[in-house]
Amino acid sequence: MAELLSEPEIAAELAAYNVVLPPKGLTQLRTYLELLVRWNRRINLTGLREPRDMVRRLFGESLFLTTVVSFRGWLVDVGSGAGFPGLALKLALPELRITLVEARRKRAVFLQEVARTCQFANVEVVAERFETLVQARQGLERPAFITTRAVNINTELLSAFRQALGPGGVLVSQTTREIADRLVALSDDWKWAPSIQVPNASSSVIVTGTVK
Q: Any idea where the domains of the chain sit in the sequence?
């Protein structure tokens, strides 16, 4: 079994992403990491196996979003998987209200366990498809942000994002350059900011779109 990193070692890995967590955040990250390593042996939450790679590729890249976007209010993370980027953002932004949408039930159970063990407040886990959730909550409160990581956003899903957010709502997606360019081309209902390269990840960018 790979040895877990110490909190100082975790902090050193995060520095490459211009992220500094408070002591409580570092403690929560180490707890989250321990759960991820343990559960990953059973339900394959991520293809990464080394804790140092998990800290960089999952936590570091997710927390890098806080240097790009000023998150506030209510955020919905779609296709959360093991909680990236949505649940990881709680490490830096404990006041953020987050809904994690993950249709695969075993992964949803993992997310609930992380939120409980790390004592994250204002975290909701929804084990269903996002399109179904949008229809069920039609006419209710709208989130300020939607986040995704490694989600193949097609026209149907982009339309569901727009419907859920409403005017002024923001989509923040960590994706490939190819998908980012495709999204920017679909500009009728969105205003897209220039893509931002993710540090130490040549194939990954962050694209941000605001509903017109």
A: 65-211
